């Protein structure tokens, strides 16, 4: 069983559906409102656990009802919360999402997630020793991501950095990551002077640019490879990237060849978008494997 550590955010997603999103100064009437579990860190932890990994979350929640819901959701999904300590003086993180015209727009308020600090991480270092891979994103402070990068290098623990949401990274941070998985927008922020192809060539088998419905691109040392994504009727793309990253980490931790890892992750992500909510639709292992077997069977026919 792959052992995965996730360092990151946990939030409640407050999701409004509307025919269209309002412009500045404008009010529109919405159609529905629900709250569901979210936050990139929590989403990735839950996705990895559903895919059969043993997952330890390192994060913070507020000492409030949302915090309780977040912890219960981790428990339901068999994610270890030994290293998720409530913060007494802050609210839980929230993400304010509008789903309109087939796409989402999101304002994230990190709140307690800002307390995932280097000092907090230092206390959780024990968890690092037995892990196969560490998964981190950017809804927590920048210096924490840098600190975790150094720890992983020292401890020779493979690090998958999902640089979302976008912010620039130092050369050192990029060097400390074993795998980097920006989308196109995030890749442009990371490598401002370079075309995406130039960036890929600079980081063979390390940089994986996710291009949504097109697929995932990387440079394998000899050529640029596009691993296509699977066509599905998307209901809600929120959390697709998180499912991709979690599944990629699981497959990498299991030692599968890189291209196979990307295929597995694309499959998992394609299933996740068929249901509402960031974590709705995140598949269990068997669902992904059945789909992959169907695909192979079709190739043989
Ligand atoms: O990646 C999707 C997540 O990003 C949502 O669950 C929301 O919490 C936002 O932070
Ligand atoms: Na979903």
UniProtKB/TrEMBL annotation:
<comment type="pathway">
    <text>Carbohydrate metabolism; D-ribose degradation; D-ribose 5-phosphate from beta-D-ribopyranose: step 2/2.</text>
</comment>
<feature type="binding site">
    <location>
        <begin position="11"/>
        <end position="13"/>
    </location>
    <ligand>
        <name>substrate</name>
    </ligand>
</feature>
<dbReference type="Pfam" id="PF00294">
    <property type="entry name" value="PfkB"/>
</dbReference>
<keyword id="KW-0460">Magnesium</keyword>
<feature type="active site" description="Proton acceptor">
    <location>
        <position position="242"/>
    </location>
</feature>
<feature type="binding site">
    <location>
        <begin position="39"/>
        <end position="43"/>
    </location>
    <ligand>
        <name>substrate</name>
    </ligand>
</feature>
<comment type="similarity">
    <text>Belongs to the carbohydrate kinase PfkB family. Ribokinase subfamily.</text>
</comment>
<keyword id="KW-0963">Cytoplasm</keyword>
<keyword id="KW-0630">Potassium</keyword>
<comment type="function">
    <text>Catalyzes the phosphorylation of ribose at O-5 in a reaction requiring ATP and magnesium. The resulting D-ribose-5-phosphate can then be used either for sythesis of nucleotides, histidine, and tryptophan, or as a component of the pentose phosphate pathway.</text>
</comment>
<keyword id="KW-0808">Transferase</keyword>
<feature type="binding site">
    <location>
        <position position="139"/>
    </location>
    <ligand>
        <name>substrate</name>
    </ligand>
</feature>
<keyword id="KW-0479">Metal-binding</keyword>
<feature type="binding site">
    <location>
        <position position="272"/>
    </location>
    <ligand>
        <name>K(+)</name>
    </ligand>
</feature>
<feature type="domain" description="Carbohydrate kinase PfkB">
    <location>
        <begin position="1"/>
        <end position="284"/>
    </location>
</feature>
<comment type="similarity">
    <text>Belongs to the carbohydrate kinase pfkB family.</text>
</comment>
<keyword id="KW-0119">Carbohydrate metabolism</keyword>
<feature type="binding site">
    <location>
        <position position="236"/>
    </location>
    <ligand>
        <name>K(+)</name>
    </ligand>
</feature>
<keyword id="KW-0067">ATP-binding</keyword>
<feature type="binding site">
    <location>
        <position position="275"/>
    </location>
    <ligand>
        <name>K(+)</name>
    </ligand>
</feature>
<keyword id="KW-0547">Nucleotide-binding</keyword>
<feature type="binding site">
    <location>
        <position position="277"/>
    </location>
    <ligand>
        <name>K(+)</name>
    </ligand>
</feature>
<feature type="binding site">
    <location>
        <position position="183"/>
    </location>
    <ligand>
        <name>ATP</name>
    </ligand>
</feature>
<feature type="binding site">
    <location>
        <position position="242"/>
    </location>
    <ligand>
        <name>substrate</name>
    </ligand>
</feature>
<feature type="binding site">
    <location>
        <begin position="241"/>
        <end position="242"/>
    </location>
    <ligand>
        <name>ATP</name>
    </ligand>
</feature>
<protein>
    <recommendedName>
        <fullName>Ribokinase</fullName>
        <ecNumber>2.7.1.15</ecNumber>
    </recommendedName>
</protein>
<feature type="binding site">
    <location>
        <position position="266"/>
    </location>
    <ligand>
        <name>ATP</name>
    </ligand>
</feature>
<dbReference type="InterPro" id="IPR011611">
    <property type="entry name" value="PfkB_dom"/>
</dbReference>
<comment type="subunit">
    <text>Homodimer.</text>
</comment>
<dbReference type="InterPro" id="IPR002139">
    <property type="entry name" value="Ribo/fructo_kinase"/>
</dbReference>
<dbReference type="InterPro" id="IPR011877">
    <property type="entry name" value="Ribokinase"/>
</dbReference>
<dbReference type="InterPro" id="IPR029056">
    <property type="entry name" value="Ribokinase-like"/>
</dbReference>
<feature type="binding site">
    <location>
        <begin position="210"/>
        <end position="215"/>
    </location>
    <ligand>
        <name>ATP</name>
    </ligand>
</feature>
<keyword id="KW-0418">Kinase</keyword>
<dbReference type="InterPro" id="IPR002173">
    <property type="entry name" value="Carboh/pur_kinase_PfkB_CS"/>
</dbReference>
<feature type="binding site">
    <location>
        <position position="238"/>
    </location>
    <ligand>
        <name>K(+)</name>
    </ligand>
</feature>
